[in-house]
Amino acid sequence: MTGKGPQMRLQDETVIVTGASGNLGAAVVRRLAGDGARVVAVDRSADPTAGPDTPDSDRHLALAGYDLSRPQEAEAVVAAALARFGRVTSLVNTVGGFRTGRVGDGTLDQWDLMMTLNARVALVTSAAVLPAIRAAGRGSLVHIAAAPGLKAGAGQAAYAASKAAVIRLVEAIAAEHRSDRISANCILPGTIDTPQNRAAMPDAMRDTWVTPDSIAALIAFLVAPEGAVVTGAAIPATGQV
Question: I need a labelling partner for 151 at 20 to 30 A (CA). Which of 99, 101, 189, 223 fits?
Fold first, then answer.
């Protein structure tokens, strides 16, 4: 019996990764490319080819300047991926934002921003990529949600509602596309160990913070064929125990 080595386990996968220049998005791109996937790295404002660890091969496509809250632009990303690689099997959406504020304290603008960055982008990218994944015969979608999507705390109304929308979206996609062999899941990370979080919380205990690379490893499992056993789930990834 023969099998694919760890560096080739995703060789048949073509994955669109959004937010590819962020801390998590870049880690996902590195992990998936390292496991052999064809990766379409997408970012709105930064060049997703930047950085010393970015893959440089004929299995990597970088796309910058796309506003993924706009259906036509999300569809253009999928079209570019299909033109380059001929198929798309997965979407990993890491686009998102975080704002806090008490209800009634100027939160309408915050509500609109969170719903756009977190919920609308998840919906628009999912809708754009699903026809291509169906055409491929199988595949997966992975979005980043958050624990407040299950229960909000003070000051989290807009953020929590937007992440709750992501969880419900994933559940609906999983139910609608089970017969198409498409899984849909979201991840609920704990505090991610990034330079920005270290600067914002210099006195925090970081023993249980979760690294971008560890979340990327979980995502790599979910987009692999063996990950299809998991669908419709909101998966906690809250750090070391």
Answer: 223
